[in-house]
Amino acid sequence: MTSYFFSFEGPDGAGKTTIISMVESFLRDKGWDVVATREPGGIEIAEKIRDIILNPAHKVMDGRTEALLYAAARRQHLVEKVIPALKDGKIVLCDRFIDSSLAYQGFARGLGIDEVLSINQFAIEGYFPTLTLYFDIDPKIGLERIYGNEKREINRLDLESLSFHENVRKGYLQLVERFPERIVLLDASKSVADVFADAISILMGNLEKNMP
Ligand SMILES: Nc1ncnc2c1ncn2[C@@H]1O[C@H](COP(=O)(O)OP(=O)(O)O)[C@@H](O)[C@H]1O
Ligand SMILES: Cc1cn([C@H]2C[C@H](O)[C@@H](COP(=O)(O)OP(=O)(O)O)O2)c(=O)[nH]c1=O
């Protein structure tokens, strides 16, 4: 059975959460069975790990500790929620997955993309996304969007310097080059409607290509 595991990636404030909820409603209206989830979190254990990682008070957290915690949350979320949904033939929409660790911890934190990739290969045991939509945005714009939204929690990563977030983007752009068969870049600076239209045309292209 073809599995439809779609991950959504990008710098903070790129618009992933907004677009995922629109994609979820669109696919449901078309009769698809969809599970939308997020990282870090998605299930109880991983949400608890999320609280540890993102707590702004945890300023002393070591970079490798951070990478290992994200990978641990990923493993539990994968085995408890993602794999069962894929086995049931559902479409899984995941707000962040392995590429976030490669861009944030591997590149921007300086731990090394390959080092963080090997931790995560242990965690995901080959369960890479079928397709990853990378929402490309100038981090300055993304952060302005976040700070302009009083409802949104400001987490420990949001508080990193602008140069850190610029390196996150650079890391993602390296991943687009490295995994061209899996990662598709979208221009997330467009309007919500235009970004949604771009996302849907890419996802429907993949779904129709693999229709039974
Ligand atoms: N294309 C867009 N143009 C302008 N504002 C946007 C766009 N997409 C999302 N936003 C707004 O930016 C903020 C961050 O969006 P969100 O979807 O939470 O981003 P992310 O999940 O990537 O951090 C929200 O207030 C959202 O309404
Ligand atoms: C999943 C994951 C997230 N992150 C970061 C990205 C975000 O700053 C934060 C997750 O918070 P989130 O609420 O997803 O931020 P946003 O909505 O802006 O995407 O953790 C990593 O550094 N590594 C990871 O593996």
TrEMBL record:
It comes from the Bacteria. Keywords: ATP-binding, Kinase, Nucleotide biosynthesis, Nucleotide-binding, Transferase. Residues 8-197 form the Thymidylate kinase-like domain. It holds the Pfam family Thymidylate_kin. Its EC number is 2.7.4.9. Gene3D superfamilies: P-loop containing nucleotide triphosphate hydrolases. Coiled coil: none annotated. It catalyses: dTMP + ATP = dTDP + ADP. ATP binds at residues 10-17. Phosphorylation of dTMP to form dTDP in both de novo and salvage pathways of dTTP synthesis. This is Thymidylate kinase. The gene is tmk.
